[in-house]
Amino acid sequence: MKTLVIASLLALAPLASFAGDQAAHGGGRADILKWDTNGDGVVTKDEAQAAGAAQSAKRFDQLDLNKDGQLTKEEMSQVREARRAAMHEKFEADFKAADKNADGGLSKDEATASMPRIAKRFDQLDANKDGVVTQEELQAHHQQMRGKHQPSSQS
Questions:
Q1: Where do the domains of the chain lie, and which CATH numbers do they carry?
Q2: Could you tell me the pLDDT band of residue 28, with boundaries at 50, 70 and 90?
Q3: How many CB atoms lie within 10 A of CB 9?
Q4: Which pLDDT score, from 0 to 100, does residue 155 have?
Q5: HSE (CB half, 13 Å, CA atoms) of 26?
Q6: What's the predicted TM-score (pTM) here?
Q7: Contact in structure between 31 and 21 (CB atoms under 8 Å)
């Protein structure tokens, strides 16, 4: 069953990639025409499937960490953790760059200038109401929101 789910996700990856390409590039016709391998200005089902197969194979190879031709739960978990770590590292770098006075937190002006999503909810995120949002306050807010979205174990 797990293999079927992973295979299904890989099969849908090209469509998700295409939708993402369209959203990122304004939905332009040129995006889909890169699949037009014979250059006739039309993308056939065979051309789309071939492009999808190539994208799926590439994604599979990225996920198959030990290169044994199989995706395991452990590999998927490792990929997920690596992605989380990279996102966390990027956020910390962005936060540090936004913290112009290097005081360890963002004022509303600093957030507005560099981190608009934080600025938009600044008053909510500034838990101690000191006019500065710290990474600790962001983490606490994230944990609180995660808890609200967890299914209740009470019946």
A1: 2-71 (no CATH), 86-149 (1.10.238.10)
A2: low
A3: 15
A4: 46
A5: 3
A6: 0.60
A7: yes
Residue 15 pLDDT exceeds 90? no
3-state secondary structure 44-109: CHHHHHHHHHHHHHHHHHHHCCCCCCCCCHHHHHHHHHHHHHHHHHHHHHHHHHHCCCCCCEECHH
pLDDT (average), residues 120-130: 96
The pLDDT score that the predictor gives to residue 29 is 63
What pLDDT is recorded for position 5? Answer: 47
Give tens-digit pLDDT for 36-57. Answer: 999 998 999 999 999 999 999 9
Q: Is 105 left (phi over 0), alpha (psi -120 to 50) or beta?
A: beta
Asked if 35 and 53 count as a contact pair (C-beta separation under 8 A), the reply is: no
CA separation for the pair 7, 1 (Å, rounded): 10
Give dist(CA 21, CA 13) in Å, integer: 12
Distance (Å, whole) CA 142 – CA 130:
19
Angstrom CA distances, 26 to 29, 42, 43, 134, stand at 9, 19, 19, 35
Please name every residue paired with 61 in a beta bridge, in sequence order, or none if there are none: none
